[in-house]
Amino acid sequence: MLFTTDKQTQEDLNIYGKQGTDSILSLFNRTSTLNGSRLLEELFNYPLSEAEAINARSEKIRYLKTVKAEFPFSSELFDPAEQYLANTDERTKLPAEKPSLEKMLTSLVASNADYKQIVNGISALVEIIQQLNSLLKNTLLSSDGPFKSDEETIKIQTLLSSEPISLLLQENPKSKLPHEKLAACDLMLRFRYRETVQQLLRYIYQLDVYITIAKVATERNYIFAKALFKEGHVIKIEGFYHPQLKNAVPNTIHIMPDSNVVFLTGANMAGKSTFMKSLGISMYLAHMGFPVPAKQMEFSVLDGIYTTINLPDNLGIGASHFYAEVLRIKKVAKELSTGRNIFVIFDELFRGTNVKDAYEATIAITSAFAKKRNSMFVISTHIIEAGEVLKEHNNISFKYLPTRMNGTIPEYTYTLETGITDDRHGMIIINNEGILELLKKSKEGITK
Questions:
Q1: Residue 155, Cβ neighbours under 10 Å: how many?
Q2: What pLDDT does residue 101 have?
Q3: Could you tell me which CATH number the domain at 31-220 has?
Q4: Predicted structure pTM score
Q5: Domain limits, CATH 1.10.1420, in the chain
Q6: How many other CB atoms are found less than 10 A from the CB of residue 434?
Q7: Sign of the torsion angle spanned by Cα atoms 118, 120, 122, 128
Q8: Is the pLDDT of residue 82 over 70?
Q9: Which CATH code fits 226-445?
Q10: Short-list 375, 379, 387, 307, CA closest to 342
């Protein structure tokens, strides 16, 4: 089953970001090759939903981190190699015999531009294949790591050790090949074994991504989460934080089968949205098999993640913010109705309607979520009165982010605690900013 998410979730978690802003992708996007960068973006778009696949990818990246692997290929080699392989015009195939001057002048087959592209492409591929062979022997297969039992790596090793690819390992890429060898290589690389060569390149681009991610994990001190089978319905994450915040405050949360709904309260500016984004990002990265900004993490694999944190009005269909919330909940309800195990985050449920409706709707929807034991939910709200009613459900865990008052100045710990807060400091903040005084003076000025 494919892991599912949507654009709203990716925007909430800033996975791809908007133009001119940093994104989670940008934290990792330092690949050496253009196709490596494209593959990285593809991986972000398709998280994994099988524990075995997640752990296998994670173990490879962890191994590359441990051995401090470097990407040994010169990035300048890949453009001529790809351009060469993209030219599948049979008329440009090098003839077995060196053409006469007259044929070279009159035929498209051996035009100067084509000939130069072919020579450069072959030379680049020979060097790439030799460097790949060296990387396998000296790094990936030099010790008992995950690559030794990896099916894809074993297949690549077999291709490199078998003719005709193995013949290229004997060539000196810096030496000019005679025409007969060039023609033989051209026939082999560009026509007969083109798919094999492209398979080798795809493997290299994947290594480019994994080596890059391993370096980011080292530099940022990220950890590797352990994926558990989905039947466990568990999330244990300690010391997690938002990767894009300086001096971010870490938090810890355990979501278990008997507490699969987290009901989160806290005053404005207490850090609820940041907490939820941090948790969502960690869960998203963990399902990719990527390193996570945390101290420790293990989680039961889910079928998807859906968040609602920065939900805009849908003016295109004339929808108010409240109706946009309703449509969002309907989408999540449809996913839940299929029996899928999903992770749901709702920030400030029903903020777009009046307090009475928000109170009733929050109780109704949260109670309905609580019956979906296969999925996990984190729901924040200002309607703290709803929490007292929801205590009748034994699988709802109540958490809050506190505010400490220093005189009339609110101070925020950003550290999760157990219970329901009664912090309400909106008017204190308004008074501290002197807004009412400004409005009073403005009114007096107009009167005079």
A1: 12
A2: 47
A3: 1.10.1420
A4: 0.91
A5: 31-220
A6: 11
A7: negative
A8: yes
A9: 3.40.50.300
A10: 375
